[in-house]
Automatic annotation (TrEMBL), chain A:
Key words, A-Z: Signal
Signal peptide coordinates: 1-21
Protein name: SoxXA-binding protein SoxK
TrEMBL record, chain B:
Pfam family for this entry, one: SoxA-TsdA_cyt-c
Catalyzed reaction equations: L-cysteinyl-[SoxY protein] + thiosulfate + 2 Fe(III)-[cytochrome c] = S-sulfosulfanyl-L-cysteinyl-[SoxY protein] + 2 Fe(II)-[cytochrome c] + 2 H(+); S-sulfanyl-L-cysteinyl-[SoxY protein] + thiosulfate + 2 Fe(III)-[cytochrome c] = S-(2-sulfodisulfanyl)-L-cysteinyl-[SoxY protein] + 2 Fe(II)-[cytochrome c] + 2 H(+)
Position of the signal peptide: 1-19
Protein name as it appears in the record: SoxAX cytochrome complex subunit A
Family recorded in the similarity comment: Belongs to the SoxA family.
GO BP: sulfur oxidation
Location(s), subcellular: Periplasm
């Protein structure tokens, strides 16, 4: 019984890792990169691209090239999340910047 | 009676709302310079061109040492040689500028009604090159910075005189530059104003933060940490990176408009370029 429980916990720990490794393919990594790229384009058009976003995207592309699709997908998802944060920042600043202006 | 009041009120409110949204560079200029004069009553207006040196004795002393043998002197000399050198077609830079390019740096950035865009001095130099069959130069450092250093030296002491004409495109460019200056960006969530207005005169690591007033007046300038002369755009790139934001392209509309707003805010201050910083 005790051993069974232990096994369950082990399986529970392994599942997410195994799942993402199994799910990430060249195609899924490429589509994560494409999604991140679209968000980054938006951030750049709002003049607020973060250096960390570009770095994460670079990691994603390198991993893709090296055939590490799981790492590529993870980095691309990270890049997209960072890009989204900067887009939120830029959107908020469109109203907030006036508060900093000296008149 | 009630109706009349409402109509009156709305008549009164409408122009006010419009005034708030219409860019008004002249009013901004007064407010901007007034803000610093009030905040630092001991610093006279013209002294702002010396940036951090009004706020730190040690930097001032370093500066005095530096300008005994001005490190930008070579750049000015090289710039003059380049400026006087003929293009393949026999023309020189002088042919591209009013007054042969002498004593005119204080009027840049300039709004160009033909293209509807702001043209900083560096971009004007590159335009001149392209018009005469030469390739563009880097807008941040090197030969173009040297030419700019020479041209700016012929304007030394002249009051900055940037014009925002009554052209909706010029006003829009000015407003875009103003918005860029005051908008927070980058992972650190800082605006240019966070450091150069709110924290002006304070220390950031080894540096004293120069106030936004006068910030453009000494460019191009020699920085010891650069080891050569760099343009205003080079500084924009560096300050964007400080807040963990990707810099814009050196030739971008964003940087042109930013330089337009910032230099306009310095109108009336004397050109003090090329400059030197520790």
């Amino acid at each position: 019984m005790k051993g069974f429980r232990c096994g369950l916990v082990l399986v529970g720990l392994l599942v997410p890792v195994a799942a993402s490794a199994a799910v990430a393919s060249k195609a899924s990594a490429a589509s994560a990169i494409a999604a991140a790229q679209a968000e980054m384009k938006l951030a750049a058009s709002m003049q607020d691209q973060w250096i960390a976003t570009v770095a994460a995207m670079k990691d994603a592309r390198l991993a893709l090239k090296q055939g590490d699709f799981a790492a590529a997908e993870t980095a691309a998802v990270h890049a997209k999340a960072l890009a989204s944060l900067s887009v939120e920042q830029a959107k908020a600043q469109r109203a907030l910047w006036v508060n900093e202006a000296v008149h | 009676m009630k109706l009349a009041l409402i109509v009156l009120a709305s008549l009164w409110a409408a122009p006010l709302a419009q005034a708030a949204s219409q860019p008004d560079p002249a009013a901004d200029l007064q407010g901007f310079q007034g803000y610093f004069l009030k905040r630092f009553p001991k610093v006279p207006l013209a002294a702002y061109v010396n940036g951090p040196y009004n706020f730190s004795k040690s930097e001032r002393d370093q500066w005095k040492q530096i300008i005994e043998f001005p490190p930008y002197a070579f750049a000015v000399a090289d710039g003059k040689t380049l400026f006087d050198t003929k293009f393949a077609n026999g023309k020189t830079y002088a042919s591209c500028f009013p007054n042969g390019g002498i004593g005119i740096a204080q009027t840049y950035p300039m709004f160009d009604a033909k293209t509807g865009r702001v043209v900083p001095l560096g971009v004007a130099i590159n335009r001149c090159r392209v018009a005469n069959g030469a390739a563009k130069l880097s807008l941040t450092t090197g030969k173009l910075a040297d030419i700019e250093a020479y041209m700016t030296s012929t304007s030394d002491g002249k009051p900055i005189d940037v014009v925002v004409p009554h052209d909706p495109r010029a006003l829009a460019a000015y407003q875009a530059g103003k918005e860029y200056f005051y908008s927070r960006r980058g992972q650190l969530n800082f605006s240019c104003a966070s450091c150069h207005v709110q924290a002006a005169g304070m220390h950031l690591r080894g540096d004293v933060l120069a106030p936004a007033l006068g910030l453009t007046a000494s460019f191009p300038l020699y920085r010891s940490s650069w080891g050569d002369v760099g343009t205003l755009v080079r500084r924009f790139i560096g300050c964007n990176k400080k807040v963990k934001a990707e810099p814009e392209a050196a030739d971008s509309t964003a940087y042109r408009d930013l330089a337009y707003f910032m230099t306009y805010m310095n109108n009336g201050l004397p050109i003090a370029g090329p400059g030197a910083r520790p």
